[in-house]
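User: Hey, quick favor. My workstation is busy. Could you predict this chain's structure for me?
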Amino acid sequence: MNITEIIGYIGSLGILVSFLMKDINRLRIVNTIGCAFFVLYGILLNYSIPVIATNAIIILINVYYLLKNNKEN
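Assistant: No problem, here it is.
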């Protein structure tokens, strides 16, 4: 197993664990971390645009809702 695969597994685990969370803010934070690992994974796969773009967009969505929820509270 090489570093690229390890990063991919960490990203998968992060996203999987995020869906076990009851608190939506914690879910979004853990999911964002998992997605960040997937962006790195996509870069290490010689710039796999579908992997990078999808996860980068999910990160932006998570950040938007985290900031929105923070302003409301």
